[in-house]
Amino acid sequence: MDSNYSQVKQQLQLASEQLLRRQNVLATGIGYKSVEGKATSELAIICSVASKKPLSRLSKNDIIPRQIDGVPTDVYPSGIFRTHSSPTGRLRPIPGGCSISHTEVSAGTLGCWVKRGNQLYLISNNHVIANSNEASAGDLILQPGNYDGGINPEDLIAELSDFIPINYQEDSVAASGRMSRWLTGLLNSLYKLSGSSTRLRVYREQKGDNICDCAIARPLNVEEVAQEILQIGKIEGVREAELGMHIKKSGRTTGLTSGTIIQTDVTVKVNYGYNKTAQFSDQLMAGSMSSGGDSGSAVLDTDNNIVGLLFAGSETTTLINRIQNVFEAMDISLPE
User: Is the N or the C terminus of the chain less surrounded, counting Cβ atoms within 10 Å?
Assistant: First the structure.
């Protein structure tokens, strides 16, 4: 790891909040600076944006500086980050990497099998098997998922046991979100008519920090459990993810894919649909190795050590929870 990593991480922690307030910035993290489309060996603070815009279309306060206290920056056009929930067959015994869902959700991926105490559980995302906070303990899980033809009760495999609630953002003003946006739009129209370049924006604050999107469910029949992942096999252990690490995953939509961790220490805004956005910190970012329906996939290194839990992405990137954060939050571990 580059000896300047700790310096870059320290500056990122100081600057992330302000950078995320700039127009179009969706995520910040640590990665290698690119020049003319090619990655260099220079560590930088990477600002992911929905799309790159000409400087002429940005206000002075929204332009990302070339460096922050000596640490270089770079802008990465990632596209908008969305959770991956979308369409395969019925599998018995049930391995990681296959289609599952809450009975009220379309479909996602069973990551792998874990344990809490002496009990075995499957792990996936909250938005896959806990219906984005709307579910309750005891709710039923299908394999395959709804979208893939899973039927209640024929395809029931587990019941929801626990999940980490997702904290969504709220308008930071006292008035309702609708009123605050209406008022902001009215004032901006008046500024425009007067010839002023001043513009107002409605910022949103979050009740609490998110570090993982995860949930566990207890199998209805442990005899139907396959402690392996499709096209990958058995998980060998747990490893800390690092910048530049080669990784792989098996998911219900894109199957077995591989990639590289291109950013660490990522703080990112994720669109959960229905006007719900949640901000996550201490995330990992990889390149394009997933699609809708891959949410919940276990992410492993080349030696089959688990390093993360896939939960979202864009057209060009994949977002991953650090597995240490997931295991600690859920009080779980790998089966022996």
Answer: C
DSSP assignment of 162-190 equals: EEPPP--EEESSSS-HHHHHHHHHHHHHH
84 - beta bridge partners?
none
Residue ranges matching CATH 2.40.10.10 in the chain: 82-166+209-330
Q: Does domain 5-77 have CATH number 3.30.300?
A: yes
The DSSP 8-state label assigned to residue 13 in this structure reads H
Burial bucket for residue 28 (CB in 10 Å: 0-12, 13-18, 19+):
buried
Residue 98 φ then ψ, to 5°: -100, 170
Stretch(es) of the chain classified as CATH 3.30.300: 5-77
Burial code (b: 16+ CB inside 10 Å, e: under 16) for 164-198 equals bebebbebebeeeeeebeeeeeeeeeeeeeeeeee
Assigned architecture for domain 82-166+209-330: Beta Barrel (2.40)
> Whose structure tokens read 């979202």?
312
* Cα–Cα distance, 309 to 282 (Å, whole number): 13
Q: Which residues contact 21 (CB under 8 A, 6 or more apart)?
A: 203
Note whether 169 and 141 are within 8 A (CB). Answer: no
